[in-house]
Amino acid sequence: MRRLIGAVLAMCLLLCSGAAQAEDGYDLWLRYRPANAAAARAIAAHARALVLPAHPAPPLVAAAAELDRAVRGITGASPRRTATIIAGAVLLGTPAQVPAIADLHFDLSALGQEGYLVRSAKLDGHAVTVITANSDLGILYGCFALIERMQLGRPLDALDIAAAPKLKLRLLDHWDNLDRSVERGYAGQSIWDWWTLPDYVDPRITDYARANASIGINGAVLNNVNAKAASLTAPYIAKAAAVANVLRPYGIRVYLSIRWSAPIELGGLKDADPLDPGVAAWWRAKADAIYAAIPDFGGFLVKANSEGQPGPQDYHRSHADGANMLAAALKPHGGVVMWRAFVYAQDNPEDRAKQAYDEFKPLDGHFADNVIVQVKNGAIDFQPREPFHPLFGAMPRTALMPEFQITKEYLGQATHLVYLGPLMAETLGSDTFAQGPGTTVARVIERGTLTGMAGVANIGSDRDWAASTFNQANWFAFGRLAWDPQADPGAIAAAWSGRTFGADPRITRVTTSMMAISREAVVNYMTPLGLAHLMATDHHYGPAPWVHDLARPEWNPVYYHRADAAGIGFDRTATGSNAVAQYAPPLARRLADIATTPDAELLWFHHVGWDHRMASGQTLWEALAAHYQLGVDQVAHMRRDWQRLQPLIDAGRFDKTAAFLAIQQREAEWWRDASLAYFSAVAKRPLPPGFAAPPHDLAYYEALRFDYAPGR
Ligand code: BDP
Question: Which of 40, 290, 575, 622 has the smallest CB count inside 10 Å?
Fold first, then answer.
């Protein structure tokens, strides 16, 4: 009997151990699993006790709780809470809070209000680790830095890590609707359950806050940029306040998207003219009411006169008139206006890629000092690859923040593995030449006092938050790049993988190489060589380069690729729309010449003959076909790589990723086949030698319908 019980117990232990258990991804990168004995001992020795100030404020309480949770998860034992300093203690506090830290005379002057210092030190002869900063929030960030080292199995001796964010606003934009649907969301419903708020606040929101704080995100816009006025009514302000209360200890402020016409819809005013004193008074009163409920409210995000949204131009006023009126209402409370430059108008025949620049460039220097203009990374719309938005080089007297899409509306949506670190880093590293060579987008956005970066969130009610484990990496990478726009996406991927799957180099080597090619793969199988916006109508799922009959010209893929029997691509040189002239002269000259335009942007800037010789020696037609095939091959490669990890990854996350990669491969082939079938018909030429005919004719691909595709 005793032997039987022993066997059953042993079986239970095996099943309950991390390796055997299927995981659901809920823990994200805050995954604190038992380390091997030696690593656990090393961590325990450096976290034997936590020393905190006598009356810690909420961020410090959160910091200590997180350290405790991490150490307990990794080593099996909690650090002691003590007031006396012992060897292996971790001290948390500002110099003003903890005299022993003050005595160390660390120089914190370069850390600002959010930076941190993690330093190994000797106190009373004891080796300790000090986490200090100029603010409680800085200490919370410092704790996460120490936890990352623990998760990655890095040495904890001789630490001297100082870091401070380069941007002030590091924000997630949630395109979440009040009915809990998420525009362009592929991970379930909104995590904000507006219906039960404020009485019930899902504990999950605390975990959301932990995850964001761990990567330095300090703001969340709760509702869709296509906003409903109802978000500004008293009941919804109370709901937002309940969320704000949970986010506050983690240094995250709440922001709201506003609907420009709210004074009419809610206030019964006859117009929403920004120069009408009654309208300005309405917004002042609204701001006052919001701040009464949410004292640290961040401010407003505004989509105005864009895609049918109302705005100041309805009253023949400019974007600056509109932004400055709102800014005046928020100013007494310290709030900001994030005014989006994503504008294009149906009655404007100009190249869509030029319209934002045309509207905003003349307003440079006209915005109030608490307005920041939010500019999408590229001039069109979150495509797999776009040249950087020309506004980044054109508004030296205006605060600018880039907006990236973390959710993959145009990148295969939930199921395609596409690591966006390289996409973001490509924009941030692009040279605008605005103040001479080296004026990268990162440099442009880091200047001045009001700085920031926004990412359209990919988060929803799915158990794993983002619909797939690898989608979580895009949330992580966004946070890291908002903290430091010059950070290396490869290093970010490695840190993410180590924290997400465990710091086993055999895993990290494979995941990071998959991630490194994944973005190029999606460009290749969807929109190679500078093509853009070839996705199906409305839901943007799957290929539809043939669509030509939608109401607005720029809604049609044919508008973007302009393929005909002679060639393909959008002529944005002087013989075409001359969008190149929106870039600084050295760059404009380079892009105006087909010989000096990088292949990756070729068809974005030029209409090119099918027989044009590429540098590779291929004709354009051959190169295009080869890129489509390469994209498919790259996905097949990623799939094979992933299979190699089966013995090292829990079944839950392994299987879901494997299934998604199979979908991605099938869909990559679909993109290749549908695109080549179409372009070959338009170009009136057969596929290049060596290419098998697509399995179906063009009519088959054109007839595919997906009425229930998510995210609309
Ligand atoms: C487009 C999306 C649309 C958004 C819009 C925006 O398809 O759902 O409302 O961007 O950024 O890409 O406002």
Answer: 575
